[in-house]
Amino acid sequence: MHTTVLALTALAVTVVALNVQIPLAPPSGAPSITPSLLSFSIEQDRWTDWVGSTSRNQFFFNTLDNLKQLSGSPPQIRIGANSEDHTNFNSGAVFAQAVFPPPTATVPYPEATNITVGDTYYETARFLPPGTHVTWGVNLGQNNITAAVLEAQSIRNAFASSAVKDAGIVLDFVEIGNEPDLYRNNGLRSNTYNVTQYTQDWIRFAKNVSVAAGITTSSHTKFLGASFAGSSHGAGFSPQAIFAAGILDSQPGSLITTISQHRYSGSFCTGSEGLLQDLMSKDTIRGNLTVFAPDIQAVRAKGLDYVLGETNSYSCHGAPGVSNTAGAALWTLDYALFAPQIGISRVFFHEGIGFKYNLIQPATLTRSTLDASPLPAPLPPHIQPQYYAAIIAAEAIGSSGATRATELVVNDALVAGYAFYEGNSLKRAVFINEKAFTRSSANRTSVTIDLNFTSGGSAPRLMTVKRLQIGHADDTAGLTWGGQTYETDSGRVSGRLSVETTSTRDGLVLQDTEAVLMTFN
Ligand SMILES: *[C@@H]1O[C@H](CO)[C@@H](O)[C@H](O)[C@H]1NC(C)=O
Ligand SMILES: *[C@@H]1O[C@H](CO)[C@@H](O)[C@H](O)[C@H]1NC(C)=O
Ligand SMILES: *[C@@H]1O[C@H](CO)[C@@H](O)[C@H](O)[C@H]1NC(C)=O
Ligand SMILES: *[C@@H]1O[C@H](CO)[C@@H](O)[C@H](O)[C@H]1NC(C)=O
Ligand SMILES: *[C@@H]1O[C@H](CO)[C@@H](O)[C@H](O)[C@H]1NC(C)=O
Ligand SMILES: *[C@@H]1O[C@H](CO)[C@@H](O)[C@H](O)[C@H]1NC(C)=O
Ligand SMILES: *[C@@H]1O[C@H](CO)[C@@H](O)[C@H](O)[C@H]1NC(C)=O
Questions:
Q1: Which ligand is nearest to the Cα of residue 334, counting in written order?
Q2: Do 149 and 241 belong together in one domain?
Q3: pLDDT class of 12 with cuts at 50, 70, 90
Q4: How far does Cα 419 stand from its chain's mean position?
């Protein structure tokens, strides 16, 4: 009798077992992972709503500082994007004056069309966490070299101020123009604007901007190149094409040390469950990143670094019910961890006040991010589900400053795994089950992961397991990480930490729509 019951129970919970080999030492190709792998790109029209104007925005600061406490370095911050090419400088302007188009249901928080900034605007960089590395964009789109020069001069002064310098906040890069490959479509240039003309424009601007910003062969600050919206290999706008057009051979072009490209997985202005499972897929994540493989190879062949300077899920600032959900957190985690496996050093997730795909909402909102309808009550600053991906990535990388990671072969189209090493030893692993369990799914299934430690050394006997618990993939709140929440008024973690300590021989049961961090003792 007893035996029968056990057998039935076993049948009901039958799960797929995945045998995963984990090398005890890093494979030779395992890339180093920067502590600021998951960084942020901020739409610059409302920059002071992020960082603070006359005093620090403590909520934003806390959300960045949480990451610094885990990985040892704060995320890098790139400020610019669409509004970068609509910004002019006026020494009389206090912070920023911006003109916004009216909100629409698909774009409840549109970018400003005309921004005027003064010195006080750039000086607010001092409110960032100490040690933050910054990239700032100047205007190429409006073809007004005076505007770009005045901005660059003001940026230089801000980063030379003692408030910024004493905090160890440094300007790594100046970017000249955002997504110039789209200028021919968005009216910023003629509809025949091509990569040769762009390269000439960039060199002309960069001559003056380098002088104004103090960028030289010996300065810390350098140029971030390209910042293209997409990749069209060959004759279109691509790193290869600007190299062929001679950008690196020019005097200011020799000051480009990193190439940036941008990526969104698609353009959907309304969400659906199908769309969520599309996003939560190893295949589509790898497909969206490996499109850059030839570009990365060409960039690295020139001895330059390569980053995704702006990225997120879907355009229209995110698809409602998809980009703002717990499922998007799992997408973010796999996307960020996969990027360095193909030579992308850092991934800047794009954020704007009220955008649906934000990790962080640092300002009080009064209209819905999903359809612009007025909210019944003002919504105070808060984190969104994707923020947990930043936390998990930072925790997996850890604060060693010398972490390497390798993707693990997991024989399942929806389960991704990564191992993390410090020096020569295996320290941690992350597994992500991307099968979408939504509010309309019938059953939540799971997989069992059997760990098979390989390549010599003695296998760890015990591990602690920390879980990202998600009610449903389409939930927009209520996630917990090791039993704790970041959905607090301060953005600081709250609640009692809860982890399991188990034998590595027992493997691990991973539910649909769940991520775990294993720490090996
Ligand atoms: C942008 O705003 C500034 C300051 O308010 C104004 O002087 C300028 O004319 C505006 N530009 C455009 C193109 O509207
Ligand atoms: C750009 O640099 C050139 C050469 O030094 C100078 O003549 C010109 O005035 C500068 N333009 C601006 C807008 O600063
Ligand atoms: C270019 O920018 C400068 C500096 O703000 C401004 O004085 C000038 O009017 C602008 N030129 C045009 C054509 O908009
Ligand atoms: C871009 O256009 C210019 C001017 O029409 C032309 O000389 C140049 O060859 C074009 N470059 C490319 C890559 O098509
Ligand atoms: C990018 O991801 C989307 C789903 O988010 C998918 O529909 C699309 O096919 C992917 N693109 C590539 C090139 O893999
Ligand atoms: C859900 O689980 C129940 C009980 O195990 C089973 O009878 C049913 O067929 C499952 N439904 C689906 C859609 O898998
Ligand atoms: C572990 O992997 C090795 C190498 O593929 C294989 O020979 C062995 O059977 C695996 N061990 C277990 C317990 O699955």
A1: 5
A2: yes
A3: very low
A4: 20
